Amino acid sequence: MSSALHLAPHAGPSTRFRSFTPRDLDGLLQRMSLTPADRLAVRAVTTVLPFRTNTYVVDQLIDWTAVPDDPIFRLTFPQSGMLPAPDLRRMADLLARDAPKGEVQRTAHEIRMRLNPHPSGQLDANVPVHEGRRLTGLQHKYPETVLIFPRQGQTCHAYCTYCFRWPQFVGESDLRIATDDIATTSSYLRAHPEVSSTLITGGDPLVMSTDVLRRYVEPLLEIDTVRSVRIGSKALAFWPYRFTTDRDADDLLRLFDKVVASGRHLALMAHFTHPQELRPPVVREAMRRVRCTGAVIRCQGPLVAGINDSAEAWAELWEETTTLGAVPYYQFVERDTGPQGYFGVPLVRGHQIFRDAYARVSGLARTVRGPVMSAMPGKVCVDGVADIAGERVFVLHLIQARDPDLVDRPFFAAYDEGATWFTDLKPAFGASRFLPGLEVG
Ligand SMILES: *Cc1c(COP(=O)(O)O)cnc(C)c1O
Ligand code: SF4
């Protein structure tokens, strides 16, 4: 474990939340030997993409003896490959010659706009309309589940370098996807009894105080047709003290108790990227405390190059979360936005990694589904590669679909070694569409 360079001497690890922003980057990087050119490249990346980490990630998760290959370092610290080489050079040149701020910002904006900030208009397409108004803080894509984006929960304890919500963290989100209109959310859910599941998400809703979170959760317990409440969060990985020593940690657990006592399923949809995130004792204590409330911890995360693109990493992650009483849920494919060129893994290789890991773990951990693309028509699962009638094809199916009639029907795409996303795929056997009602991306 490294020494706490930026903190006053203390007996144990600091349990007071403190985040680091791009201003702190130079100081943090003193822990490694970087050339001036490396430092400039890192600065260039953070001018375009968001950066935020915190004391816990820096002092307890990252193994500084393994940097720059350490997976948690790569999970939160910018790497030069995250920008296309010409963009990186251009931005580095501007910074090297101390170009005016306006010019730097204009260039950053221009580079961001080429990184597909709003992939396939997904957010826009999922916004429900209620009594003539668009409810921009909700998403309703699949009949039985509504996503809620609380206004105060649109940041995270640290930022993942591969984050698909990156535009909102650099102020480029033109879609105001957040709400504090709780009454209208309730009114919408009452008008839609087919919605049995709600998912409070972000950002990370657990950056909110328990008192604020409560204002979103408690009204859901008044609606009989809502049978489950999910909270999507990376706090177990990035700030487990949220469940142990934070001032309102006990209040949070009492809120969880209350949801469970209402007779509903409470799921903490925990984002985990690498088994290293499970090693500190405080994570295990946090998971134990959450489980004591009767909440179920379900684990999900994306497969990303250079961080967790090995069967060993996934097998350990799934086995270890299962041992700790959590349930592996989804393994995602990195979305077609931001630094996807750097973190994306071709579907062929992604499926091999999934299969190799899946084959190694106990049946208890084979609750996981993947690799899954959350694409325009729905959640597309890559089932594998097969040779059918002389043609090599991908076998796929939809786990979730806008059109429920398309769920769980096998379909086939032409084999393509380079494909990284659904929109790269073409129907196999010369067909014009994947299924009746399922068109090409
Ligand atoms: C993944 C997802 C859900 C939840 O799907 P489940 O299969 O029920 O976990 C709901 N809405 C959207 C937009 C999603 O991407
Ligand atoms: S926790 Fe989720 S929303 Fe937050 S930075 Fe990571 S991927 Fe993005």
UniProtKB/TrEMBL annotation:
<keyword id="KW-0663">Pyridoxal phosphate</keyword>
<dbReference type="GO" id="GO:0046872">
    <property type="term" value="F:metal ion binding"/>
</dbReference>
<dbReference type="GO" id="GO:0003824">
    <property type="term" value="F:catalytic activity"/>
</dbReference>
<keyword id="KW-0411">Iron-sulfur</keyword>
<protein>
    <submittedName>
        <fullName>Lysine 2,3-aminomutase</fullName>
    </submittedName>
</protein>
<keyword id="KW-0479">Metal-binding</keyword>
<dbReference type="GO" id="GO:0051539">
    <property type="term" value="F:4 iron, 4 sulfur cluster binding"/>
</dbReference>
<dbReference type="InterPro" id="IPR013785">
    <property type="entry name" value="Aldolase_TIM"/>
</dbReference>
<keyword id="KW-0408">Iron</keyword>
<dbReference type="InterPro" id="IPR003739">
    <property type="entry name" value="Lys_aminomutase/Glu_NH3_mut"/>
</dbReference>
<keyword id="KW-0004">4Fe-4S</keyword>
<dbReference type="InterPro" id="IPR007197">
    <property type="entry name" value="rSAM"/>
</dbReference>
<keyword id="KW-0949">S-adenosyl-L-methionine</keyword>
<dbReference type="InterPro" id="IPR058240">
    <property type="entry name" value="rSAM_sf"/>
</dbReference>
